[in-house]
Amino acid sequence: MPGAVPEPLLVVEGLRKYFVRGGLLGRRVVRAVDGVSFTLERGETLSLVGESGSGKSTLGRLILRLYKPTAGRIVLDGVDITWLPEKKLRPMRRRLQLIPQDPYASFNPLRSIGEQLVEPLEVHGLAEGDEAQDRVLRLLERIGLTPAEEFYQRRPYQLSGGQLQRAAIARAMLLEPDLVVADEPTSSLDVSVRAAILELLREFKERLNQAMVFITHDLATARLMADRIAVMYLGKIVELGPADQVLREPLHPYTRALLAAIPRVSRRHTTPAIELKGDIPDPSNPPPGCRLHPRCPLAQPRCSREEPQLVEAGKGHFVACFLVER
Q: Could you tell me which of 144, 93, 143 has the C-alpha nearest to residue 119?
């Protein structure tokens, strides 16, 4: 209707994923993602940042329904896909694509690059035969894998890391998805090729008006790519807001600690630096109350008893910290 506000492309509500692990000491429940909520608009990039073990990659795979959630909701363009059986989910797969962190692990070493790029076109009924091959060759040319006919015939081990990551991007973009989850797509690449890969992702995103969940531990990369940043710690989002605002005026102690760890030529800060103690706790036994309190130098007695909720500290800027509430 005229004047109506369009619905977000993606709505995530109270999403949880618990893994049950067994061992000599018995079973334990790993709370990889533990109550995450956010929305994502068309054409918007949300970057998930945090230490290893914070739940970023698990959340990305939940959104794509590569993992079945333990609880919560995932709504894509008005359709609740949380519990859809695989048969009904398959038509939605075309709209949801993953760019993996390790491209070598995502390609079959026994098949050519061209065969593996043609396959999703055929599976989803978009093209087959010579038409599918022509579409793949045109895209290989576009992403800089030239001569395209030669790269089409190569096996994955005959490509460099940067070339294979370009092929992984091409495989995802061939289907022109609405939502892409890029799971640290440049972390295994040399610095010399990272900028080219990021620019390639931006080009596709703008041309296709895609939404993107960009997972990274590199805050500088997050700032380059993201419209908004969500900072994750031990399965929860602790700060969420516009990228420039979160990085320029971080409000959560964890975000401030991540920024303080970045080497700088100038040590002038708008906010005091925070140094955390120890390592991230075991997600199978998270601390009570605020999960950061055992490591946080600003922790108060209340932090060990009560769990802070995300509250809006500024326009679109949400923080889960009792200090901000006050």
A: 93
